[in-house]
Amino acid sequence: MRALVAAANKGTPMTTKHHILLALLGTAALSACGGGASEGTRESVRAVGSSTVYPFAKLVAENFTKSNADFASPIIESTGTGGGIELFCQGVGAATPDIANASRRMKASEYEKCKKNGVTEITEIQVGLDGIAFASKKGGIDMNLTPEMVYRALAANPYGKKNTAKTWRDVYPSLPAKPILVYGPPSTSGTRDALKELILVAGCDANAEMKALKDSDKDKHEQICTEVRDDGAYVDQGEQDNLIVQKIEGNADAIGVFGYSYLEENMDQIHGLKMNGVEPTYENIASFTYPGARPLFIYVKNAHLDAIRGLREFVGEWTKSWSKDGPLAKIGLVASPADVAAKSQAAATQFTPLAATELK
């Protein structure tokens, strides 16, 4: 409790002080009513969010625990990017997470919600890159896809007309006459957001009318370009990407959509599908040649830096792990370009707050 009080008084905005102190008063009330210490205090760093970032955060946590015997093991939870940021933004104090893992950048609307709840200082750190991989069982269906093909196959109303395509050949004559069956992430996932932004919108905007619609009716454009069909062609498989891998391993005609690390981890059973003729590989993601390349982030709650033991050190463990030759690369993380890595290193050391003007 003393640590949180110290954080509340150490150069923290008055609104944040009030929220921290209110959280502490709530904790004291719980204890007074017979609640155990575990209800109001927390010795472990807690990170929530992206299923894509989850395996990387778990490895960082394991290595942190091995090299820091004086600190409790961090708690890492896979809730999806949207769900994780929502938990992160609920306020300050031991009942809320210290870190949000994200497979997309925080939205301006999410930042405003954080601010409204007293989370006024947040550090954004890009930890590396990933790719939205399309994959199938080895020896199973194999295609050279384009964003337009994927959009035509998965959109609920491609170019404003109800989707009636049953097979890939219905989408494009050169594709196999196999049923469209894609297992992918749910709407709360950052991977789903990236699928929309990097692939579906790109495919939708290949149509001149849709591209023009973006300027005349932004909401309608977003609906037509990003709404995914719900007739069984696209199957929402939850936040467990390993389950998607299992589904396509069991069906030679099925395709899975998940982060590149899950593809690399299961190369003996599945293979990546080309996008615009480019394979989802480490090199192609690092160079952004692959269309589905995207940055991965962690967001740190600055009000907790001096309140939660080990938080600074845990963030420091990330910086020791994300290089091209580091432990995270061995399980599929793609290292950020040198200039971005340098900026991330500075952010992880100085904890400069994110500015609202940087977000959209």
The total tally of domains equals: 2
Low-confidence stretches: 1-39
Largest sheet geometry: 9 strands, mixed
The secondary-structure element order is HHHEHEHEHEEHHEHHHEHEHEEHEHH
Quickly name the level 1 CATH class of the largest domain.
Alpha Beta
Number of helices: 16
Number of strands: 11
**Rg, nearest Å:** 22 Å
Overall pLDDT score: 88
- Reported by name, the CATH topology of the largest domain is D-Maltodextrin-Binding Protein, domain 2
CATH homologous superfamily title of the largest domain: Periplasmic binding protein-like II
Our measurement of the CA-to-CA distance between the termini, rounded to an integer number of angstroms, reads 36 Å
Can you give me a brief rundown of this structure?
This protein is an alpha/beta fold and 360 residues long. Helix content is 41%, strand content 15%.
Explain what the structure shows.
The chain has 360 residues and is α/β, with parallel strands linked by helices. It has two domains: 2-130 and 294-358, Periplasmic binding protein-like II (D-Maltodextrin-Binding Protein, domain 2), CATH 3.40.190; 133-292, D-Maltodextrin-Binding Protein, domain 2 (3-Layer(aba) Sandwich), CATH 3.40.190.10. It has helices at 2-9, 14-32, 37-40, 54-67, 81-88, 108-116, 147-154, 168-171, 190-204, 208-216, 218-226, 241-249, 260-265, 282-286, 311-319, 338-350; strands spanning 46-49, 75-78, 99-102, 122-137, 144-145, 182-184, 234-236, 255-259, 270-272, 274-275, 293-301. α1 packs antiparallel against α2, α7 crosses α9 and α10 (208-216) crosses α11 (218-226). It starts with a helix and ends in a 10-residue tail after the last helix. Mean pLDDT is 88; it is low at 1-39.
